[in-house]
Amino acid sequence: MPAPLTQLCFADRHERLRFRTALFLYALVIIIGDIPGARADVGQYASGVVLHSFGYGVLTLILFSGIAGGMGRRAVLAVLMVMAMGALDEFIQSFLPYRRGAVSDWLVDITAAAVVALPLYFLWPKMVMAALGQGRRQPGA
To answer: Is 140 among the domain residues?
Structure first.
């Protein structure tokens, strides 16, 4: 039997939890990003491109793993959701006097989502089988 963390990351029965986790992390991105000065402080360590690529790439991975259905459905919905999330993030920022919404940041979000979703489309079934031990013969069987 696979380890509990492996089950949490790959088992179908935890898809909803992973999906909700992605939504929770997105809410944190919005809340923390809207704290005055927080983005400037983080900007000393990582550029906006790095932050957007990493953040929305991770969200894409978690969304992909948390959406039920075939690989095409997962990939398309994960990318579409990240597109909407990124657009909402930039829209909210446009109302804050100490932030600005930028189409270029949104394009980075979309690119990160596509770059993550494309390999997952091909590799996710193999990753799940390897992690959960499906398809392996039992000794003595």
So the answer is: no
Percent pLDDT > 70 in the chain is 93
Residue 87 sits in which domain range?
4-132
64-76: b (≥16 Cβ within 10 Å) or e: bbbbeeeeeebbe
pLDDT of residue 1: 55
Asked if the structure places residue 98 within a domain, the reply is yes
Domain for residue 35, yes or no? yes
- pLDDT at position 135: 54
Query: Is residue 138 included in any domain, yes or no?
Result: no
Q: Number of structural domains, the chain?
A: 1
Reported as a single tens digit per residue, the pLDDT across 50-62 is: 999 999 999 999 9
Q: Within the chain, which residues score under 70 in pLDDT?
A: 1, 134-141
Q: In angstroms, rounded to a whole number, what is the distance separating the alpha carbons of residues 23 and 18?
A: 9
Rounded distance, CA 93 to CA 99, Å? 5
DSSP for 50-106, please give it. HHHHHHHHHHHHHHHHHS-S-HHHHHHHHHHHHHHHHHHHHHHHTT-TT----HHHH
Q: Are 42 and 51 in contact (CB under 8 A)?
A: yes
